[in-house]
Design goal:
mainly alpha
Length: 90
Amino acid sequence: YTPIEGLVLGTVLCCLGDGLVIPKMKEFGERFKGHPMPRLVFTWAPLEASFVLTIFGVLMGFSSPANQQKVSPTLLVLANVLRILATLAI
């Protein structure tokens, strides 16, 4: 693998499985009333997923397949920032 392909693979592996973690945190919260961990995980899980998906999108743009046209890194980062701002505005 090239270093960029390795980073893409790393972003795929680091994403938190919301479908697995959220039910376990609900169970944990019922078992240990008042513990702050479930609240922290409920807050962090969507942020982490958004962050990893953004990084994945940027890295996929940098790891150009053989038939893909060259793209300016500045344009790629700017497009992803614009995508994030548009998502937050909606």
